[in-house]
Amino acid sequence: MKVAKLIAVLVGAGVIAGAAQAQQTGTLKKVKDTGTITLGVRDSSIPFSYLDDKQSYQGYSIDLCMKIVSAVQKELGLTSLNVRMNPVTSATRIPLMANGTVDLECGSTTNNLERQKQVAFAPTTFVTANRLLAKKSSNIKSLADMKGKTIVSTSGTSNLKQITTLNGEQNLGMNIMAAKDHAEGFLMVETGRAVAFAMDDILLASLAASSKAPNDYTITTEALSVEPYGIMLRRDDPEFKKVVDAAITNVFKSGDITRIYNKWFMSAIPPKGVNLNVPMSAPLKAAIAKPTDSGDPTAYAAK
Amino acid sequence: MNYNWNWRIFWEASPDGMGTYMDTLWSGLVWTLATALSAWIMALVLGAIVGTIRTMPNRAAARVADGYIELFRNIPLLVQMFLWYFVMPELVPEALGNWLKSRPDAAFVTAVICLGFFTSSRVAVQVSAGINALPRGQKMAGTALGLTLPQTYRHVLLPMAFRIVIPPLTSEFLNIIKNSAVALTIGLMELTARARSMQEFSFQVFEAFTAATLIYIVVNVIVVNLMRFIEKRVAVPGFITTGTAGAGGH
Q1: Which residues of A touch B199 (CB under 8 A)?
Q2: Do A202 and A113 belong to one domain?
């Protein structure tokens, strides 16, 4: 079905190729008709998309979305383009995208195969992984070092599930605790009730950076899982996706990405002026060198 | 509308290790029912006691009961949930607080206690209204027969009052089931929380919430019929009319 559709589109494209530029459809047409593009933004996904102390939305994903917005404006030949910021939550982002309220979702949404049945993703712009945070003094380099020790993760997360599975598979005999939220999980390591905290590395970095003694902690280099984040758009809108993909690819190729990345991950960010200090990971470097919107974690395996 | 419907999603494996998405929702329903039923028993017992005290001739006792009702009725349920879960463990002695926080079923226990107290204040109001709805002569007749005040309540007033308030109590029973969804904010994985996690994993948001809606409706239809059955069974011929569940809610 999908293949047939694709072939039809390709054949159609071939027919029109010689002709003048085709009529715009989908999101591009909507943006052109209304003169407005709407971004779905999050209010607390630091540093991807959040409200700062001046009540304006900003972050890494929003900067990248603005690059897409300029590309769309150029594509449509508009002299001005209104950008509307529409707050979304994890529960509302899909319905609002489906019913046309938001055109791009600029947050920290994981791209996976399951979700690609419902939405499309721009090329991956961040790769996070399930890693361990521990005190430097406890000398934890990998999960194997945790044999027989106490580990904590946040209840209801895939991270906790993975730790439980690995504990059984590798006979580590770890004592696994579930914290009710990320802050409590970090507190358990801080107070010594647990040796390590297993969570998405970017969340760990942000917890460590805003703690009392950021230099006391280290995050393991061993990645237990891989989760690519991408900017989300509607499915079955090849015209719009082409513009989005080209815009992100241009940011990657021009080296702009390094500046944007460093702005949010390697320097002080509002509102508190905390520096997350997360250097670009190998999987992300690979995804920037060869842009991909794959939802398969194996595509990001550190080379 | 650019949405990819997939009603077969319920038979697909869910990544939370519960089996299929259907199993995920089912386990949520079990938690919803466990929470609602436990809290309902607590609410009925407390509400009956407080509601009765409120109608007693002793002014001081009635004042205390009034205070209890106002306390639990005037604070939004969501706020109460947070107070019980995050604030209460900090106010009790530290050892007890730590024990509370480390219990694996802390969210469930907290949700039951919170819903129980919240709903008990509403039940208390209805019970006292039921008692006050009885003709004043009932109480006088009871005492004239030589019954003590507790005996008058036990044998004359309460049996009548409870029959009167079955319809509004039905609404409260339905409310407690719906209100149990608030417990997802403290991490109880009940039905609504499960529907949310299903949409989080699969992005099939409309299917997830359609299923949750239908399940809530079925449960509530069962409850309404159960309460009607009880109402008919305990009806005293010629006392009050039967078979109309009052419209309630908030």
Answers
A1: 91, 94
A2: no
Question: Domains in chain B, ordered, with CATH?
Answer: 30-190 (1.10.3720.10)
Domain contains A105: yes
CA–CA gap between residue A231 and residue A121 (Å, rounded): 6
A118 and B15 in contact by Cβ < 8 A? no
Q: Is residue A159 within 8 Å of residue A110, measured between CB atoms?
A: no
Q: What is the pTM of this model?
A: 0.78
Least CA distance to A117: which residue of chain B?
Answer: B4
Q: State whether A100 and B15 contact (CB < 8 Å).
A: no
Least confident range from A60-74, A86-100, B9-23, B137-151: namely: B9-23
Mean pLDDT of A147-158: 84
| Domain range enclosing A85 | 23-125+230-300
Predicted confidence at residue A43, as pLDDT, reads 87
* DSSP letters spanning A197-214: EEEEHHHHHHHHHTSS-G
CB atoms within 10 A of CB B225: 12
The 10s digit of each residue's pLDDT in B183-194 is 988 878 899 989
In the DSSP assignment, the letter for residue B13 is B
B2/A234 touch (CB, cutoff 8 Å), yes or no:
yes
- Per-residue pLDDT of B51-66, as tens digits, reads 999 999 999 999 999 9
Nearest partner of B153 among B172, B173, B130, B126, judged by Cα: B130
Rounded to a whole number of angstroms, the distance from the CA of A153 to the nearest CA of chain B is 14
Q: Which residues have CB under 8 Å from B238's CB, separation 6+? A: none
